[in-house]
Specification:
By secondary structure, the protein is an alpha/beta fold. 27% of the residues lie in helices and 32% in strands. It has two domains: 344 residues, Rossmann fold, CATH 3.40.50.12780; 98 residues, Alpha-Beta Plaits. It has eleven helices and 21 strands. Helix 3 crosses helix 6 and helix 8 packs across helix 9. It is globular, with a radius of gyration of 22 Å. Bound molecules: zinc ion.
Length: 447
Amino acid sequence: MIDLAFFLKENSSFIYHLREYLEVYGYSEDLDRRLSEFLADEHESLDTWSRISNKMATTSHQIKAYSNINWKEERFWDNIKFIDKSDLRNDYDQFLNSEFDIEKLWVRPTTGSTGEPVDILYSPEFYREVQYLSIHKLIAVAGISQPECESSALCISLHDRVTLEDIVWINIVSPEKLVLRMIFDKNDTASSEKLFRLLDKYQPKVLTLKPNILEAILRHLEQSPSLKLSFFPAIISSGAFLSEELKKAAQEKLNTKIYNAYGLSEFGLIGIECSLQNGLHIYEKDVVLEILIDGKLYNEGIGELVISSAKNMAMPLLRYKTGDIVNLTSEKCSCGRQGLRLMNVYGRILTTILNNKGFAFNSLEFEVLIDLWNLKDFRITHLKHDQILFEVEPLDSISFDEKELMKGLEKYIQSKLKHNLFLEIKILKFSKNLLPCERYISKVKNQ
Ligand SMILES: [Zn+2]
């Protein structure tokens, strides 16, 4: 059993939400049951539209956006309109299910990399799923084995939003273990020192992070010879595209295995890599994935991922354009599991910036720049066919050097574009609310 009081005394940056624990504690058996069902069911292929319609039929009259849909109609899904993050931003209320008491819902903001974050409201059931079950699903599908000695933590998950706090949870899905969320400052080697201390002491089964944090850990190891590495758990990477180079370098240096996962704040966990690491298995039962190519929807292929999910009944989102370009296939994996697999998540692509050779910009690749220029957040908007708006929020506006950022951007874009394309880039510095306050313009011509 974990001594939480002792943990909090030893790790004073962490906070603990007793109220949350009391609220979810009564559901531990339910979560255990759902996990067993998930594990037993994992080879089944899924007919998901009918699951969605079963759920939506009884409640959709309470959700403005879907009140007109006749769920009994054949091919009812043809009547579901596309939505994207801008719809959430502009008319948020139309997706809320009035059956739920808004005061009792949980809130998760979306990431800021595609614009101003939007708060997604989670039903209590969906919150428990995301916060307490997802990690067990990831570990099971990836086939991550127990560390040799008895550990007191299940998972440490790293976040780079320095405005958030370190939190400790007790994961009520048996066996009861700590789940830690540590805020990781990519520009401070002290973050890696703190992480390594926690890893050593609590020996978690997995560490979850985004690729840019992984990169920062490797950088810190190089910069600070005093950093000693003794125990490193399996890593689950999500939130952005993980390049093969980074994966390989990190696996070697940290002497561990790295698995990919795909999820969004809007939907929770979507895809998990199995031990063969050949694509991400889609397991989520009440989720339909479609691929949008040139305005038409397909069941598989390479294009923009469109997600429909009735898992979060407080705010179900159907036909939601993720902006992520992926490769989805129904080809069977050698591990024996059936169903769809995400073979590649290329990241968020500004689809209209394509040249005749098919090159497209992937804004998630710009995360590299975030680390180099001390940025808190950024936003990329495609304004015209030859114009990109790059808005940045510096972590610390005093030491922020926009000339250096411009130079870096120009160099980066030139290295990416092998053909003639004239781009205009505007850099805005925006305040907390992502409101532009200053403007810089630069032009980049690529030969
Ligand atoms: Zn597999």
